[in-house]
Amino acid sequence: MAACATTYFETGRGWGARIAERNAELMAQQAQRRRRVRTPEFFVARHFDNTRLVKTSDPARVREMRVFCAAVAVLFSLIMIYGLQHFSAIEGSYRVESEKQTLEQLREENRQLHLSEAELTQPGRIDQMARQLGLAQPQPGQVVYPSSRPDSGAPALAQVASPAPAAQ
After folding, report:
1. Model-wide pTM > 0.85
2. In the chain, where are the structural domains located?
3. Residues 47, 58: contact at Cβ < 8 Å?
4. Is the separation of the CB atoms in 22 and 44 below 8 Å?
5. Ordered mean pLDDT values, 10 residues apiece, the chain (168 residues)
């Protein structure tokens, strides 16, 4: 036995018209199923008036609902804390990977700079560039080597003198 279904778009018609249409539909289906033996089915709409009913409060049910709400709130907060920790750990691992990549890039750049420094400070290369610029090796006596004792007669720009120890 099928029930009468109402959709949102059928609100223009009344219940009686919809029931009559549904009854005619069911009778047509039955005729096809039972080899032309018709058995009519009728649906009667019943209307109940519940306006006089009053809902009373149930303290046990209220207590149950409060306990349930508290349990759900605790469960929700625990799930949120777990999620926060989980996503913080994932973010930290991404940060560590980023720092590792940065460190690797800096190491590669340092290696390149060391190679460049070694290439630029080769004595043969420096000698070749000096010859291209027209420079020659110094003659004997042109090179002055600093001594550990400064010459007292030579002018000095700045001197550091340690204070003499006081006799006691």
Report:
1. no
2. 1-49, 59-126
3. no
4. no
5. 52 78 83 63 80 88 96 98 97 97 97 94 89 86 73 65 66
